[in-house]
Design a protein that fits this description.
Layout: H1 6-22, H2 27-34, H3 38-45, H4 53-63, H5 67-70
Helix pairs in contact: 2-3, 2-4
């Protein structure tokens, strides 16, 4: 996807995948907790789509982490 902030979306997706795996959750388990499809969760993690703040807030809550952790880009 060609977008101005593609690097940031990629890092966000990697952080979501990292914390999801750290909690031993599959994409489908996290997707169900956030009330999105597994396909959409996959697209978020792979930076194939934009993601709303509502979904980001829900992901952070489901992963039991503060939202800022998802934006700690290393």
């Amino acid at each position: 996807m060609e977008r101005e902030h593609s690097s940031e979306y990629q890092k966000l997706g990697l952080n979501i995948a990292y914390y999801r795996k750290e909690r031993h959750l599959s994409q489908i388990q996290l997707a169900e907790m956030v009330n999105v499809s597994r396909t959409h969760m996959s697209r978020i993690e792979n930076s194939d789509c934009a993601v709303s703040l509502d979904v980001i807030f829900s992901i952070a809550k489901a992963l039991d982490i503060p939202v800022y952790k998802l934006f700690e880009f290393r």
